[in-house]
Amino acid sequence: MLKVFKAGLKNITQSKTGAAGLAVLLVIICISIAAPLIAPYDPAQANITRKLVPPSWAAGGTTEFLLGTDNLGRDIWSRIVHGSRVSLIVGFCSVAVSGFIGIALGLIAGYYGRWIDAVIMRIVDAFLAIPTILFMMLFMFVLGEGIGTLIFVIGITGWVSYTRMVRSEVLSVRERDYVRAARVVGAKDSRIIRLHIMPNVISSFIVISTLSIGRVIISEAALSFLGLGIQSPAVSWGGMLSDGRQYLATNWWVATFPGIAITITVLAIIFVGDWLRDWLDPKLN
């Protein structure tokens, strides 16, 4: 494990975009962890007397509010800092849910094949036939709001890509000599899958899951923007975008800074994902 870690550190120093993405992502994670210490104000505390104050460097701004305030007088910087927690929690946890379901079904479909494979892949086709955002909206409408519901909904609608990827990897591995040898000596299917097949799909899963975190963050923002995600008094970047959209023409900072936060986070994750793909895929090395 230590050798893999050292190899990763050595490799990432050769990728400028990967190193930059990882550095930015680590900073964002640290900010989210230390949010109560970094944020100067309560993100949900409203004060109508200080509403729509411009950023500190703009005309009419004040150093008291670095990025200004929103329509209810809430400090935007404090809200962005606390909102990072929601975006990262939803991103990582939703991918974990999707990955667990997708890997399990992909391993079963690819290893056993026949009618089991046919049934699972028909379910995959059915999910692909309906727009993902429509699935999410339907589930959110039925199950209600909340971060737990949001994680479940995004996770349960995102497993398809993992299933297809894992299945294709298993199909190429299950007939290799060492897998056949394990069957000949009487190894159980569960042992073969765990020790001989699973290690061959982990690298692809890591790459796809890393790239999927950015997509999940955008999905969370979209649902919150549509009023189906995280709602006040909880703070999310998507909710901040929704609150500030009507002020874009007059008070641009209300929606602009949450949008920038989403963009930077997603780009950082994409850069890290690209680096992981190049590092873990021997065909690209």
TrEMBL record:
GO cellular component: plasma membrane
Residue ranges crossing the lipid bilayer per the database entry: 20-39, 88-112, 119-141, 147-166, 197-218, 252-276
Signal peptide: none
Cellular compartment(s): Cell membrane
Domain ABC transmembrane type-1, first and last residues per copy: 84-273
Keyword Kinase annotated: no
GO terms, biological process: transmembrane transport
Topology within the bilayer: Multi-pass membrane protein
Domain of life: Bacteria
Family membership: Belongs to the binding-protein-dependent transport system permease family.
The name this protein goes by in its record: Peptide/nickel transport system permease protein
